[in-house]
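To: structure desk
From: M.T.
Subject: fold request, one chain
Message: Could you run this one when you get a chance? Sequence is below, nothing fancy, just the single chain.
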Amino acid sequence: MKNKIVIYICVLFLFFFNTGCSWFSSPTPDSEKALQDAWELFGMTNYYMAYTKFESVISMDPDNKEAYIGKGWCSLLMNDLENAEIDLKIALDKGSTSLDPHAGLAAVYISNDEFLQAISKAQYVIANDPEYTFMHEPEINYLDMHLILAMAYFHTGDFQNTYYHILVLDPGIIIDENNSSTWVLNDQQYDSYAEILMAIIDDLDVLYGIL
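Reply: Done. Structure tokens follow.
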């Protein structure tokens, strides 16, 4: 009986040793390497391949919040707003504390003309990190959130907050709602304060717009 126990222990030892299963080691799972590869593809702006790789991460690890964030951002940057919203919300539902899904949703909402939702998400990002930067694409940052806020406030008729966020993006833009002589941009005179604000936003969108 004693010999049988010894043999059984030896067999268990060989099984764990040969299969890599062990109570004493923590091997890097395949999903972690796949996630790293996915972000590398994302950084190369190969969003389609990155999207596919993020999907493979999720197939291995269905609760991987980071993969849902990556998948959502890939969809967003490929202008698939519906799937972007779905995946970014899933990341939050699964407990992500990152600001990245909130920033992505702000971009989704402004693109869908859901202005109040866009304001809520962009404000949340800036309130939690006034110098927010998307780590995997540093050109996407707090300036984009201010642009989204300028756009959203404009479309809700709140020109005071529109101008505030324009000034964050370019403090050199000086216009006065009550002085039509200041309604000039690139040597073009505009007929109303709303028109000059919209022209400025369009100009800034070229510099800072995500989509």
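Reply (cont.): The radius of gyration is 25 Å. Let me know if you need anything else for the meeting.
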